[in-house]
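[User] Could I get a sequence and structure tokens?

[Assistant]
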Amino acid sequence: MSYMLAPTKAHATDTELAAAALPDTCDMCGHSDTTHDAIASRYCRATREHTLHRKCICPG
């Protein structure tokens, strides 16, 4: 039987580590989820879903 595994990252980024340490924190930018406006929420979600590397645009 053969299994295909999805590629995984070897190391977490500093932003991911900071986000994991704080509850209700965006895993893409490290800001609180409550400080995201509609555009920032969509931007971070698209960044995560498409595995993009781009700068934060959050208002807070």
Q: What stands out?
A: The mean pLDDT is 75. The radius of gyration is 14 Å. Residues 38-49 form the longest helix (12 residues).
